[in-house]
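Worked example 3. Consider a protein that binds pyridoxal-5'-phosphate.
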Amino acid sequence: TVMALPPPLPAAGADGSPVLLNFNECPLGPSPAAQEAARAILPRGGRYQFGLRGELAAEFARQQGLPVDHVAVYAGSSEPLDRAALAFTGPDRSLVLPDPTFEAVADTAAAHGARVHRVPLLADGSHDVRAMAAAATDAGLLYACNPNNPTGSVTARGQLEWLLANRPAGSVLLVDEAYIEYSGERSMLDHVRAGADLVVLRTFSKIYGMAGMRLGLALGRPDLLAKLAAFGSNPLPVTALAAGLASLRDPGLVPERRQANALIREQAIAWLQARGYPCLPSQANCFMVDVGSDGKAFSAAMADRGVLIGRAWPVWPTRVRVTVGTAGEMARFREVFAQLAPARSA
Ligand code: PLP
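Given these inputs, the predicted complex is written out as structure tokens:
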């Protein structure tokens, strides 16, 4: 007899289980085709299936007009992000990154003995590329995140191109495009194609809804990718490869999810702003709201009421990050937010 599978997880918030708006995940999970592909490959999970990695790289390369040797597949984008910190920073090569941003690369660089230079975002939420270029003459790595986590704010491509052209000699630019599919922004991949000192990261954790399955990409010149590869072997889960391939081959998936996310995000932001709580414009699946009091305490109070939201960043102690959930989850978010934060004149 076949062992019974556990029952499916209840929809968050439906039965008293917490609403999860805290990790910038996609509430929709893997697409139906991706789930089917993962199920279909499971019986062959006893094999490494190295060929599947090449198939996924070839599919992405074909879609983006990249040579396949400019594509490296990892189990998520955290892995190549850490490897970039190890490869391009050290005691005499510092890291420059915006603030606030996704800080994983800073933690790894610091642990690797590198100095870390945090450059505040401009008031519109974009990267201050001039200050970033001037932050450290010994910079080994400049990290840009577009759209940025935690703000969802975007930096115009021209600004990132300026940074690429004007960065300190010998440094590499890393552009983390984890959220780019949610935005209308143009990728920096064409500069990878042109052979720049640039690595672009993509992930299947966000719009593709595969955070728990683990799949990501590093895109760059083969010599740059080789420096990341040098830090150890990189085995991949076949379920993620199969699901990732199915996702890439579904042309409707990204535009559909982008549109649904934007609609729900803009509704939430409009509601908050009308109640007197300012938000930075976002083009991702998260945004920051200024609650006008200690953000950490506010997040904790929301959590007590069953709605888990993101945290505050030290530079902006009164703003908290909120991940865009389903329409139902965001209705619950508004209910609990209203209990804690009264409407006030904007
Ligand atoms: N980069 C950014 C900007 C992120 O926000 C995240 C996750 O939140 C990651 C990278 C890492 O995600 P993963 O390792 O799941 O691809």
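Take a moment to read the result before moving on. The chain has twelve helices and eleven strands. The first helix runs from residue 32 to 41.
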